[in-house]
Amino acid sequence: MDFRHFTAGKDDDGRRLDRIARKFLDGSALSSVYKFLRKGLIKVNGKKRSAEFKVSENDDIEIAKILCQNGGGEEKQENEGKSGRLDGGIIIKRSGDILILNKPYDIPVQPSKDFKGRTLSELVEEDFRAKGGSKSISFRTGPLHRLDRKTTGLIVFSQSLEGARIFTELMKEHRIKKTYIGIMEGRFEKEEEWTDRIEKSGSQDGRSSFHKVSVSESGNGRGKLSKTRAIPVFHGRLGQEEATVAAFVIETGRTHQIRAQSKAHGHPLLGDTAYGAKKISGCGRDFFLHAYSIEFSSEDSDKLEKIGLEPKTTAKIPDDFKSMLEKIGLKENIENFLKIQ
After folding, report:
1. What does the alpha-carbon distance between residue 141 and residue 134 come to, in Å, rounded to a whole number?
2. Across residues 296-324, what is the average pLDDT?
3. Would the pLDDT of 318 be above 90?
4. How confident is the model over 225-240, as pLDDT tens digits?
5. Contact (CB, 8 A) for 58 and 5
6. Do 271 and 287 meet the contact criterion of CB atoms below 8 Å apart?
């Protein structure tokens, strides 16, 4: 039987063989991976190994060619060196461990059945391979947090297992401050702390992968706890209607969190008809929400330095968003208003 040989990289060191194999074979069922191991279709340094075997950096991992062809490994090798199509203009920061992008409007991060183009994740993976990728046979780059299709701004992708581990750890410990900028309907007067429970409430229509969420009216429903600090920074008007530019500092990262909570607290995002707002015409957008910044505590400086992160990173506000800010009367640089946080 013919085998392909792979050298375990730094990101493979100390990982279980079954997990490496499953990742390499594009998420094959664990039962299938166990079968391949029992039959000797996957070996380490020429020997059959158990699923629990811990791989070391520089180990020679042998995988039967038939599995590579069926599991996607061949495709990876064929794509090595091809030019990625990630627009360099949206790259904010790149290191060996993380990639920070300024996501454009109306492009999904993950596959969506009603979107026919290339997703942001696909473009990042293509770019990752074109630049040599990782020496690990099991690591795949991917987004480290969520961002809605029609929300713009800052999103972080992993470029190594270490980058993914450290960033995810900081998120789980709520040590990352994420600030968004949005435009709300009406006059939102003072800073508020929103603590609600959010749960999915079904698809908007049968053809779309879009799922709305709802806020439990009692506050103690079955949904996930969601916390947002909403800070008004400018009051203006769009035609005859009042509007408020607000900063949103989120402690949690639920699906449509800011959109759903804004509606629940009486001020949906301007134009967000899915969440109760009036439609706005002639602007080319459904609503205006931008992931503006991520900030870290000085206590985490060693971890940040290790993976190439700055204490604070910001994403430039898109031109069409700035145009809407000017229409409602905000002529100054929005960043001047955000200093009040």
Report:
1. 9
2. 93
3. yes
4. 889 999 999 999 999 9
5. no
6. yes
Q: Is the dihedral of CA 169, 121, 34, 73 positive or negative?
A: negative
* CA separation, residue 34 to residues 17, 29, 51, 110, 229 (Å): 10, 9, 7, 29, 48
Judge whether 141 and 125 are in contact, CB under 8 Å: yes
Cα R_g (the chain), whole angstroms:
23
CA dihedral for 297, 301, 307, 312, sign (positive or negative): positive
Distance between terminal CA atoms of the chain? 64
| Sign of the alpha-carbon torsion through 206, 212, 217, 223 | positive
**100, 103, 84: which is closest to 92 by C-alpha?**
100
Beta strands 152-158 and 289-296 are parallel
Question: What DSSP state is assigned to residue 275?
Answer: G
Helix (H, G, I), strand (E, B) or coil at 21: helix
Token pair of 179 as six digits: 């600030």
- Residue closest to 33 by CA, chosen among 16, 10, 11: 16
Question: pTM score, two decimals?
Answer: 0.79
Q: Report the residue count for the chain.
A: 341
Half-sphere exposure of 294 (CA within 13 A, CB side): 22
**CA–CA separation, 60 and 17 (whole Å):** 12
Percent of all residues in the chain with a pLDDT value above 90, rounded to a whole number:
53
- Which tokens in the block code for residue 178? 């994420």
230/192 Cα distance (integer angstroms): 5
For 211, how many CA atoms within 13 A lie in the half-sphere containing its CB?
12
Contact 188, 230 (CB under 8 A): yes
Cα distances (angstroms) measured from residue 35 to each of 16, 32, 53: 16, 5, 15
The two three-digit tokens of residue 127, written as one number: 């770019």
